Amino acid sequence: MTPAADPRAARRRQTLALAAFLVVQTLAAVFFVGDVIGDLRANPASIHFIFEALVTAALALGVLFGTFALRRTIDLLRAQEAALDVARGALGEVIDSQFADWGLTPAERDVGLLALKGLDVAEIADMRGAAQGTVRAQLTRIYSKAGVTGRAQFASWFVEDLLGEGLRRAPAS
Predict the structure, then answer these.
(1) What is the pTM of this model?
(2) Helix, strand, coil share of the chain (percent; to 5)
(3) Are residues 76 and 139 both part of a single domain?
């Protein structure tokens, strides 16, 4: 993929452009606030002063709203990049990262991955050369660390990213 066709690079450029615009807007707001304060001593009742003060207030509000919009844009870009990673086949990396966030041990990681692949307790125990009770205990610890109650919720935690909004339900007739 060429750099010009890289959607991530395009989003980063857009974010940088928004940030640069916000910096220029902030500098303008600071200048005009100073100018309004200076004009306050001259003639605060004049139409020119009132108009300039209102425009300056609008500019300052624009900076404030722009900051919130930029923050939302950055959060949205991060979420989109995470979704793209999943869509591009990086699910294994996402799983490894989440396992690390949950603090799973290497043995728990292996058991968790095998559970996500759909193997049952007996199959996991056989593959790992462990007792079924050990695998059940490891699964219980994994589910606890993940904050889920069982295998279905554990698997759906990762599948949810792939589904996006999820399945749409048909309206009741």
Answers:
(1) 0.47
(2) 80, 0, 20
(3) no
